[in-house]
């Protein structure tokens, strides 16, 4: 067996996303043995040393850092993986780019469009390999949707709709901010469901259906005040608990998006549907191995939505896993993204979505928030 | 408008089935205006005059009888509809045939195979038009299944499986026998779920997949004793509460059937599935307007079970009702059977299933019960 | 049996809705025998005499009219049922009210808010019994949703979302206007999917979740020109093919609505979902006998959306039909509305939705169209 | 961090199951960090050295063997994992036990009941830790089913039914025997779907519902002859392509099982349902993160099957993975079994199913095959 090239990873942040990415690095070699590159878990960084040590032990990182600047300064690290809360993304990415590191950044790119622009400028100036972890593109059923659309089977597109519904913040006694809850602190997260959930929906939508021209949005904060974990005081909640928006795509189709953390009964219901002249597609994260597909070319009395169990070897990524009928899970989307990033290093083709591509999602997010604030339609300038 | 020919109906029995049939007679003219014949509700018969009067008032019968023999003796009645408990089917049918009446008989044909044979002999000797109310054949999705199979799309058939699951008799305090509960009295009903529920499954199966060669059955009576409504005493329960059987069809396929009144959570779950070399079909009474269909000829990455909402004008019977997407209900199967019976009078083609055809279902039922009693396989002699 | 009071019906228009209403009048006595009133099909009116005669023959109307004014002038008619295209609703309703007739009017009330106001004024001045056929309220699963909400089980409401998706006008060769296609002619229909489909969603929403305060809408006409059946010329299409809107309800919850005739694969997918603090509900017309219900009070490891098959005798209207597990269809909602209208005559309580209540739906529709035209939020003034 | 104790694994066989087990060993430390033991991939054995080398490279085994006897003879291996075709299970297990190795054996235990008995005797005499890879028990939804049943919520059990349906051998041109196809060679596999698929259903059933008393089975071989890969000749097919059986459990409930490789449209549809007096449960491998649950104690108008998305931290194993709503896949069941095996080494409690427990499944399999051959009911003697 030929020796693999090492891709030495420095992971910053060891929360939920630190785990999903680490799992991706560890699994990719087992399931994508043909790849030239092999990730090596060189170091993990957390401000709390105990936490970094525990994480390193559990996941096999060779060393720990407590200051991300030290991590970036290390010669034995090729790629920086940014898994911090959103407020650190820009600073770290810009410094890492300046240090010539490859960058894999959790979504959303940053808290604001302005921060994001600075990151893209820095990355492109540095010319380093980069990708943003909009992982849902690489769930096989979603990738299959992309292939179907690219094949032209849908014809002219009329409608795109997507939801991302959760219910975990309904309890008014849930505090905001701090450990485990930074997503509820606007200073850290930048926004609420817009950056956290709608950004996923927008990334997928642009990928599948092209750019969004303009939007009209609405946001709401249902629980106005919550105890802040860091200050111990009841403070105003500044994030959006829920957001819906209508939009027009450049291809003339209409879009409708909604996200909330107040949809009782939905833990993480990410669904999308796209209606074309000749065929339609829909997908649901709660049943992630399936794609539903309606083809108007089927004989008229026998037409119906097809429930495609995307577990066959000729379906995207599925030749790497088990046998037909045996599903995979959420985490595999990250394994696939690692694989595609490694392959991009071989081929020199960027690993989508790049920072540049993810910037467009930020433009839409910003336009949605601006529209909600002003009550008027906003162009995305995308 | 041409004047219609009258088909003067005499209905015997005014329970649940009396209602579904009456509704069929009343509705058929509105939805099948092209038919030459129009049912006229001439008389309804019940041993209890008050009950007959109330029923006649509610459904528009012109007169009442309290003795079915008087009904049969009337000159102004063309067709006798038998909706009594099973123990009266044979006697009434044989007498009605002798009187030259057309006969529409509720299923199962009778309590036993022997009784059924006598009925078929009488009917065929009399040469009168006849049909048995195995209504599920005429749910549009089921009729579509028949059309798909007849078109040859399934290829060689390997498997047939059907369930009819209910849960209404689980409570051990439910009495047996008498008003509303004759289905639990073996003397009246002949059997439990075999005649009541499995007979439906068997009728559909034979229609769709041909004759059944031999069977191996199992029955159980979970609650051994119940208070009898007529005697007021706790008595042994003689019906089968549950029955399963395996079988081989003449075409070489395997069958698996199950019925019970002890499947908590299922009110009336009648499902069937048929697997062929090239395609498969399944249906579920709880969602009766849909047919699921899998076609192996679909492109390999896009194959999946199709959920066909059988509400389009080019699907069976559906040009008679509303517009695509708007479902119909259980009762419509009876309207369809009335329509097909009336049409059979125009064309002279028998209205399936005839008594002769329903006899085959009785043969299978008997073989199942015999097999369960003996613990051995039994030929159906069909 | 006590003799029933007659409610002598004069039906104007004999298209699709003329059929559903007639069926309602004919069936109600069989299934709601306790009612004091019995509809009598006195006359049907169509400008084309042949058509009226054929309809009368098929449905049992005693006479025909070709001028609706003659119908209104008749002494032997108690109630006028308006099933014409939308452009005649106002004129007929106002005249009928002036003549002291009860009025049952197809939805939407009229083409515009202004027309609708005139109708309500006339009706209320006349003080006649009235109702508008927003039939979906009376599908048992939908009525059950109302009961659950009224019981307080949902707690504070956060979200309401509804879709009404069809696909029948995608073909650009489909002509507009005239026989069978007046819904595509803005002069006759007033609007496209807003009045035809969204009005249903809005009526249900207001009934379940209270008044809508303000809206932001978007409309689109995908096929800009079609041949007009009446002129034979290719003309501009003036209806909205698709419409989405966001809104805020008076109770603080957010709403999201969408309707289109360009959602390939959906024949008549009317769905709604309502998310409350403690429980959620959703419903889908394609599977109309079911209600899905999530109750957060269920034990945490055993919580899940419940699929309620609304066919039990203790569920709304279902004591009138068959036995548990056996579903009913679309048409039954009209039978229920007839029954409720007849009962309202007994009790003197109005049969909801009255013209006054339906006016609020018109206010929302108008605000949506105005918002779509202006690109700004609009108050409904409801 | 405390240093972990090593459990040095020797894997015999590197096909599909070699992969799933290896993945289990590699993942367990990341997700179950609290365990004292850590698997170490010491050696993998295949008769073909190239294959062993490639597998070792891909999965990180430290060394390779080409003779399983050499593997068993090694001092640096604690546990033998048997992933060979079925015909080697007995010989290897008996030798490994004699050598004092722990044993993890793929299912079914062996080709025949006799072989299995010999294995159990040897294992128990040696007193070594052991387990059999009936992995489906450890899919969280299935484990939750076990917890619900053990809690007594179902009450008296009436029915158990299970299916395992595939369609991959329908093509008559598919050869039998040899590489990748040993499951179709009765000499190697022992049986067809009985050992391969029904054994899973039986293991789960016994675990959930207790011992099976007697059975009546039916088997079929639809394609009678196939080209044998090893001989190059068309030979008689000796496996069962399909098998159904009825049974009685010791607790008085009825069972119905079916398995086939000829159910067009089903890749790996493993479903089971259990109906109790008070509640029912069902599960489907194609949607493996869900459990359906019906509780008759729910309010009568609000009762329905609950669709439980088993992804919450208080549900079995799910505190180890991601966040609510994010599903896991098929392979995780093996990670869980590894974790439970490691824990059993800490606690001294056997890791179910042990060889002894798996023997009972063999008894049922044998009785089914014997019954199918004789056409009579057979006791399982379990």
- Largest interface between protein chains, with number of residues from each side: A-D, 43 and 43 residues
* Structure classification of chain A: alpha/beta
At CATH level 2, the architecture of the largest domain in chain A is 2-Layer Sandwich
Give the beta-strand count of chain A: 17
Distance between the termini of chain A: 47 Å
Our Rg estimate of chain A from Cα atoms comes to 21 Å
List the secondary-structure elements of chain A in sequence, H or E: EHEHEHEHEHEHEHHEEEEEEEEEHHE
Strand order of the largest sheet of chain A: 16-15-14-13-7-12-11-8-17
CATH topology-level fold name of the largest domain in chain A: Dihydrodipicolinate Reductase, domain 2
Strand content of chain A: 25-35%
Multimer state: homotetramer
The pLDDT mean of chain A sits at: 97
Count of the separate structural domains of chain A: 2
User: Level of helix content of chain A?
Assistant: 25-40%
Spans of chain A of at least 5 consecutive residues whose pLDDT stays below 50 are none
CATH homologous superfamily heading of the largest domain in chain A = Dihydrodipicolinate Reductase, domain 2
Shape of chain A: globular
Q: Compute the number of helices of chain A.
A: 10
**CATH first level of the largest domain in chain A: which class?**
Alpha Beta
Biggest β-sheet of chain A, characterized? Answer: 9 strands, mixed
Structure, explained:
Chains A, B, C, D: GO terms for molecular function: nucleotide binding; oxidoreductase activity. Chains A, B, C, D: This is Putative dehydrogenase. Chains A, B, C, D: It comes from Chitinophaga niastensis. Chain A is α/β, with parallel strands linked by helices and 382 residues long. Chain A has two domains: 5-135, NAD(P)-binding Rossmann-like Domain (Rossmann fold, 3-Layer(aba) Sandwich), CATH 3.40.50; 139-328 and 352-379, Dihydrodipicolinate Reductase, domain 2 (2-Layer Sandwich), CATH 3.30.360. Chain A is built from ten helices and 17 strands. The first copy, chain A, has helices spanning 16-31, 49-59, 68-73, 89-98, 113-126, 140-150, 186-189, 193-209, 332-347, 355-374; strands at residues 5-12, 37-45, 63-65, 79-82, 102-105, 130-132, 157-165, 212-220, 225-227, 234-236, 242-249, 254-260, 269-276, 279-284, 290-295, 305-309, 378-379. In chain A, helix 4 packs parallel to helix 5 (113-126) and helix 5 packs antiparallel against helix 10. The longest helix of chain A is centred in the last third of the chain and has 20 residues, at 355-374. Chain A is globular. At the A-C interface, strand 7, strand 8, strand 11 and strand 12 of A face strand 7, strand 8, strand 11 and strand 12 of C. Strand 16 (305-309) of chain C pairs antiparallel with strand 16 of chain D.
